[in-house]
């Protein structure tokens, strides 16, 4: 099989490691196979691909869509990120829990995040390029998020390990003002397709 699938302690999250074929000319790898992914437990139809580039210290997220929820298959093609998913599925035993994975051009790992999660990442190198497939189109009217440093979710962004401080971080204006997890909980809103 061209991929290894590591199912995480939060149901639905999967770290995918592709088989890399390399020699003195370079390398080749498959980044997606509908059949192989289904055999690995990921049954998703992707409809949109996105690509971003960021300098070191950019923190994007934690994003989700309230309707037209997006599952994502994310990977890094240049540089390195700490990628984070937060379970926002209200009936999940891991509601409010998070998982982080380091993704890099070197390790070539991918992270599958199904619908019902908030997603974000911290870039660890300049010129980091992040690519992801989505299971639904971007719908700005349903765009929402959770504050990256929410004390109830309490994500460990590993700043010390990566030689960063909060003062080094760069955010969009939108991400500085996202709602707290408590506000999301109290809204009673469910993330839906």
What does this structure look like?
- With 193 residues, this protein is mostly beta strands.
- The protein is 9% helix and 38% strand.
- A 6-stranded antiparallel sheet has the order 1-2-10-7-12-5, with no helix packed on it. A 5-stranded antiparallel sheet has the order 9-8-11-6-13, with no helix packed on it. A two-stranded antiparallel ribbon has the order 3-4.
- The longest helix has 7 residues, at 181-187.
Count of individual domains: 1
Molecular shape: globular
The amount of helix comes to under 10%
Largest sheet: 6 strands, antiparallel
CATH H-level superfamily: Jelly Rolls
Summarize the structure.
By secondary structure, the protein is mainly beta.
Topology:
Layout: E1 3-7, E2 14-18, E3 21-23, E4 26-28, H1 34-39, E5 48-54, E6 59-65, E7 72-78, E8 80-87, E9 98-104, E10 110-113, E11 117-123, E12 128-134, E13 143-145, H2 173-176, H3 181-187
List keywords for this structure.
single chain; six-stranded antiparallel beta sheet; Jelly Rolls; five-stranded antiparallel beta sheet; 193 residues; mainly beta
